[in-house]
Amino acid sequence: MEVTKRGLKQLISSAIQADVSAKPFECIPGPKSLPILGGLWKYLPLIGNYDLNRLHITGYKMQEEYGSLVKQNMGGEVIVNVFDPSDIEQVYKSEGKFPARRSHLAVAHYRLSRPHLYNTGGLLPTNGSEWWRLRSTFQKPLARIQDVRLFLPSSDKIIGDFLTTFIGEGVVIYDFLPHISRLNLELTWSALFGERLGSFHSTQSNCDSIVAGLIEATEIANSCILRTDMTETIWSKMKTPIYKKLEKSLSFIECVVDKQLNKITTVTDESAPKKTEETISLVDKYLKFEESDLKDVRGMVSDLILGGIDTTSYTSCFILYHISRNKFVQERLKAEALKLLPNANSPVSPSVLNEAIYSRAILKETFRLNPIATGISRNLDQDTTLSGYLVPKGTLIITHNLVACRLEKNFKDPLTFLPERWIRGSKDYCNVSPYLVLPFSHGIRTCIARRLAEQNLLSFILKVGRNYSLEWKGSQLDVVTPIICKPDNHVAIAFKSI
Ligand code: HEM
């Protein structure tokens, strides 16, 4: 039998993991499990002190009460919560050849009930070899930095247009998130289809416009994921209101995507200039792949729209929150941005991104304090020892990177926003476990659009820092966790032109 390098690594790692001296799984501390309710009583008003809508605070309380490894029985499903970076490392090492998570179950159900439109449940919910068939195909144009850099000229133009349209010479904006969502929809659409959607245009400001519809549909769909993941036994028998809400949003996204795919696959404009490496879109590339067909592309495009807007929009809000409240950070950013972008409309080029050390540190520090996910979920692919307990293969694990990143034992002054932590040579530089700040996750199931998202966010930081001074006008911002971490208050900022 041929043993591949990866297979051999896994064999060795399983041998190390099968620790005979480990304490039994049953002894992992956690909330008492009641008949029928299991540990769900902790989330009930009056008797419980946990909150699904504030998973980060729930996680914090959990590790305070029970320690670094916490077992919960959530309505029959056992979950192990992991807070320690060395355990998080072990979880990734035990994720196997096809890292599996249990999420987006209702999205999969919706798509699998439409076999004339989809081959699979899509990249987000699918596990196993089918996931890898999709992933290895569709990640091709997104994995290498030189391919992602091809999107830079158009994203630079879009961010420039956004700043001119919504901020101009300077203004106070009391609720910036809806504008930022338009920016990130436009960036996602342009990467997907190589054309503009017109998200900043006045004709798209009505609530019945395609732009408003897409933003609303993705936000509603994302907000239904956690609740539908927890109620599968009910909606799989009878459509519940929350399932119907998700269905309506997915169907709206599907209609828009289908119309666009139809246009691309049926209309050939002979007079249009021939597409070059720089102008060819993600979908143009996807449609040429032999490993996939139109049904796969439909699912992938929908997943990229679902994953592309809220993640980057919420992150942009937190970046602005931290910059606008920290004058010193803002001054250092301004100095870097003015050096790299001498004029107000100087383009962000690949070399500018390579030299944007401080802007990159701002992004990393934002992700430390405000990652978009509180952690990730995995089904263990092998028996694994975590915090001295033997956790069996197949167990559902939730990592809590957000909580770990806000603990004194992992970071000095953990609640202080300090980009210098990430600058080598700075007195505040900290050499910490690489398994703490993992906003895009890690390993082969890491976010498929990581490089694209980072590129867009860095360009945004540089262009804002170059052209405006910012002052925070809102109240303190934390997060609510419908699934990803959303600002829990209005993002209110005064912008002044530099
Ligand atoms: C701030 C920006 C973003 C963050 C922090 C982020 C984070 C993540 C995380 C944590 C995962 C789960 C990975 C895992 O389970 O190991 C993920 C998966 C994914 N993300 Fe992102 N993401 C971001 C932006 C985007 C964008 C812009 C898109 C699309 C254009 C996108 C599309 C996806 C998709 C399709 C997956 C599923 C990948 C798979 O299961 O193979 N994300 N992302």
Layout: helices, strands, pairs:
Elements: H1 5-17, H2 55-66, E1 69-74, E2 77-82, H3 85-93, H4 105-112, H5 128-138, H6 140-143, H7 145-148, H8 152-166, E3 170-173, H9 177-193, H10 210-230, H11 232-235, H12 241-266, H13 282-288, H14 294-308, H15 310-325, H16 327-340, H17 350-355, H18 357-369, E4 377-379, E5 384-386, E6 389-391, E7 396-399, H19 401-405, H20 450-467, E8 468-472, E9 479-480, E10 486-487, E11 493-497
Parallel strand pairs: 2-7
Antiparallel strand pairs: 1-2, 3-11, 4-7, 5-6, 8-11, 9-10
Bound molecules: protoporphyrin IX containing FE
Report the total helices.
20
Spatial order of strands in the largest sheet: 1-2-7-4
Helix content: 40-55%
Low-confidence runs (pLDDT<50, min 5 residues)?
none
Annotation, overall tally of beta strands: 11
Task: Describe the oligomeric state of these chains in a short phrase.
Answer: single chain
Task: Based on Cα principal axes, name the global outline.
Answer: globular
Measured between the Cα atoms of the first and last residue, the distance is 66 Å
Mean pLDDT across the residues is 94
Largest sheet: 4 strands, mixed
Question: What value does the Rg take, in angstroms?
Answer: 23 Å
Alpha-beta classification: alpha+beta
Strand content: 5-15%
Protein name: Cytochrome P450 302a1, mitochondrial
Pfam family, one: p450
InterPro entries: CYP11_CYP27_families (IPR050479), Cyt_P450 (IPR001128), Cyt_P450_CS (IPR017972), Cyt_P450_E_grp-I (IPR002401), Cyt_P450_sf (IPR036396)
Keywords: Heme, Iron, Metal-binding, Monooxygenase, Oxidoreductase
